[in-house]
Amino acid sequence: MLDINVLDFQRSLAKWVNEGKTAAHWSEPTITRISQGLLSALRDFGVLQGAVNKRIAPPYFPIESFAYIVFCLKQQQPSGAKLMEMPDWRLFFLAKGGVEQLLFEAHQRDLLEYHVAGSVTRLTFPANTLEEYANVLAQR
Q1: How many of the other CB atoms lie within 10 Å of CB of 10?
Q2: Which H helix or E strand runs over 115?
Q3: d(Cα 106, Cα 8) in Å, to the nearest integer?
Q4: pLDDT digits (tens, 9 = 90+) for 47-94
Q5: Both 73 and 115 in a single domain?
Q6: Which single residue of 41, 50, 110, 133 could bond 127 by disulfide (Cβ 3.0 to 4.6 Å)?
């Protein structure tokens, strides 16, 4: 989980002010107020969680969509262990633990087979092509 705090926003905003990327110069209190407002807005829209300590909220991810993405990524990365660590998951704000959790759920719903024994990870699907797998998912 990625934690976010007001200082992160303040540093970025101050840098943009110093680079002339704002319409006018902003004072420190203005930068602080805008940073707090941005964090509150992102929390209100469900991007962040937490009242004081903010962190990126895990996205709602339909399990069928997740399974389809795993199938696509598996074509690029045949190793199940390496697939879970691909930087592509950051697009969905997912760390390795979140990917593992969703893989277990997809396995429980028979969308794929996911087995782990020590450092060995086995990941298989009930189809060989994207089109076939899309049909498998659509029939569920």
Answers
A1: 16
A2: strand 113-117
A3: 35
A4: 888 877 788 777 778 999 999 999 999 999 999 889 999 999 988 878
A5: yes
A6: 133
